[in-house]
Write a structure and sequence with these properties.
Layout lengths: L9 E5 L9 H13 L5 E3 L4 H13 L4 E6 L1 H11 L5 E6 L5 H5 L7 H8 L3 E9 L2 E3 L2 E5 H11 L7 H10 L6 E7 L2 E7 L1 E5 L3 E2 L3 E2 L11 E6 L4 H11 L10 E6 L1 E5 L3 E4 L2 E5 L2 E13 L10
Parallel strand pairs: 1-2, 1-3, 3-4, 4-18
Antiparallel strand pairs: 5-6, 5-18, 7-10, 7-16, 8-9, 8-15, 10-13, 11-12, 13-14, 15-18, 16-17
Helix pairs in contact: 1-5, 2-3, 6-7
């Protein structure tokens, strides 16, 4: 029920193209489950990223109280940009390839119907990453993993998380560490690195545990830097990222800060989506997102 005693207004933003189109098969099941609860949401068009972002912003401005998102990290990223800093609750129904944001919040280890139920649960206030008015929810990446992510998104096959593994192997021959100036809460660091990841939640790249201690309720950003590593060394460290054991590698350093500036040359990506070019200034925004059923507790892998 809404605050005025009326029916709670909900909208459903779906990405039928998620998981190479297989998410379209989930839409009927999601709608049936919502109707089981007596909910008839407004349907938002997601024919393109721009259309999805515009539709999400319009519905939030129009007073929708809960925005349900069906798909992967990409559509969640777009929806978060609309709801951040508002009272609109975001209900994530993970049905994508990576689902890294949902995985970090314990929202994936259920059936699709259970995921719908959780998207209707009470909300939890979570932090977001602000980049001059733009919003990211999981991570902002520069260097080698940005190139891997871009290639993986272009690949029509294989389906599933193995696409990221193959993209890593294909990008590896062209990997070159680069020079960056990293400013953490005003303290500057001149570094040469293959990987720079600024994270709000722990996973990226379809389940790689890049920042195992990231907590989206602590008001801090976790930063993972893989230094001047060679190709073979980088490949070995990426194998360790699957379990989070890379943090003990001598070329890996971890930091925490409220504000992070990255200066250098190259493209950056956020939550697996294009996010412009360096330089970029990032800041943790405490409690910027209200996410249904979320948990920041340690995650048991599904």
């Amino acid at each position: 029920m809404g605050d005025d005693g009326g029916v709670l207004r909900m909208a459903l933003l779906a990405n039928p193209a998620a998981r190479a189109g297989r998410a379209a098969l989930d839409l009927d099941r999601v709608v049936d489950r919502l109707r089981h609860h007596g909910i008839h949401p407004e349907f938002l068009t997601a024919g393109s990223p721009l259309a999805a972002a515009d539709a999400a912003r319009r519905c939030v401005a129009d007073g929708v109280e809960r925005l349900l998102v069906l798909g992967g990290d990409g559509i969640t990223h777009l929806a978060a940009g609309a709801v951040a800093g508002t009272s609109t609750v975001m209900g994530v129904i993970p049905a994508g390839t990576g689902n890294d944001f949902a995985r970090a919040l314990g929202l994936t280890a259920r059936s699709l119907e259970d995921r719908v139920d959780v998207a209707l649960a009470d909300p939890v206030a979570l932090d977001a990453i602000d980049a001059g008015g733009r919003t990211a929810v999981s991570s902002v990446i520069a260097g080698f993993p940005s190139n891997v992510n871009a290639r993986a998104n272009r690949m029509p096959f294989p389906r599933g998380a193995s696409r990221y593994t193959i993209a890593t192997l294909l990008e590896l021959p062209g990997m070159r560490p680069a020079d960056y100036r990293l400013v953490l809460d005003g303290e500057a660091h001149e570094i040469r690195a293959a990987v720079v990841v600024v994270a709000n939640t722990r996973f990226f790249g379809a389940g790689m545990d890049i920042c195992p201690d990231a907590d989206p309720t602590d008001g801090l950003l976790d930063v993972c830097i893989v230094g001047d590593a060679g190709r073979l060394e980088l490949l070995r460290s990426f194998q360790k990222v699957q379990t989070g054991s890379h943090i003990g590698h001598p070329k890996v350093t971890m930091h925490r800060a409220i504000g992070v500036e990255i200066e250098g040359v190259g493209d950056i990506r956020a939550d697996g989506e294009p996010f412009g070019e360096l330089p970029v200034s990032l800041r943790a925004v405490p409690g910027a997102l209200m996410v249904a059923g979320a948990s920041a507790a340690p995650v048991v892998r599904d």
